[in-house]
C-alpha cells in the first residue's frame, strides 16, 4: 500500500490494524503503549475512553520525541470501553470475569464507547468518542459455558468479540459496528482527512 504521510498506530491490537487495512490505510509503525487503564472512581465510560485513547497517543508522542524520522508523523490511538449503565465492564483476562460480564450482558442493552485520538504533524490533539448501543439475546447457561470454552473473550472489553461467535448474540445494534470491534472507521477517516491526511492514497493497492 502506497501511503504518502506516515501514520503511527499507538496500539498492539490486531483488530485495529485489520480495521485500518480494511479502510485501505497501512500504519507505518505500530507502537503498543502500556498505560494504566484503571478507571477512576465513578468515572463515566465516555470519559474513560477519552482519557485512555488520549493517554495512549500522548505516550507514543513522548516515545518518539526528538526522533527526526517521526517529525512529520500522525499518531492515532483508540480505547474501547463496554458499559451497562454507568458500570464499566473489564477487559477480561480471567474466565470468571468473562462469565460475570456475559451474565450481565445477557438479554440486555449495553453501550460500547471507543475513544479515538489523533495527534497531527503540528502536534494538534484531536479527540472523539463514538458510542454504539448493542442488545444481546438472553444467553443460556450452555451459550455461556461454550462461549467461555472458545476463549474468544480473552483481552476483549466486556468479555466478548462481536467479530466472532458473539456476533450471533446480537439482536440489535444502533450505531457503528466497527466502533464495537475497536476502531470506528467512518469517524476515524473523517478525523484523518479533516487534518490533511490523504485517506485515499492506499486504496488502489488495498
Ligand atoms: C467489545 C469488543 C471489544 N474488542 C476488543 C477491541 C480492543 O482490542 C479490546 C479493548 O481493549 P483496548 O484497551 O481498547 O485495546 P487493546 O489493549 O486491545 O489494544 P491497544 O494496544 O490499542 O490499547 O477489546 C473486540 O475485538 N471486539 C468486541 O466486540
Automatic annotation (TrEMBL):
Subcellular location: Cytoplasm
NCBIfam families reported in the protein's UniProt record: maf, PRK01441.1
GO annotation terms (biological process): nucleotide metabolic process
Active site: 79 (proton acceptor)
EC number per UniProt: 3.6.1.9
Keyword Oxidoreductase: no
GO MF annotations in UniProt: nucleoside triphosphate diphosphatase activity
Role noted for this protein: Nucleoside triphosphate pyrophosphatase that hydrolyzes dTTP and UTP. May have a dual role in cell division arrest and in preventing the incorporation of modified nucleotides into cellular nucleic acids.
Lineage: Bacteria, Pseudomonadati, Pseudomonadota, Alphaproteobacteria, Hyphomicrobiales
Uppermost EC category: hydrolase
Coiled coil: none
One Pfam family named in its UniProt record: Maf
Keywords for the protein's UniProt record, in alphabetical order: Cytoplasm, Hydrolase, Nucleotide metabolism
Site, as annotated: Important for substrate specificity: 15, 80, 163
A GO CC annotation given for this chain: cytoplasm
Catalyses which reaction(s): dTTP + H2O = dTMP + diphosphate + H(+); UTP + H2O = UMP + diphosphate + H(+)
Assigned protein family: Belongs to the Maf family. YhdE subfamily.
Cofactor(s) required for function per UniProt: a divalent metal cation
UniProt-recorded name of the protein: dTTP/UTP pyrophosphatase
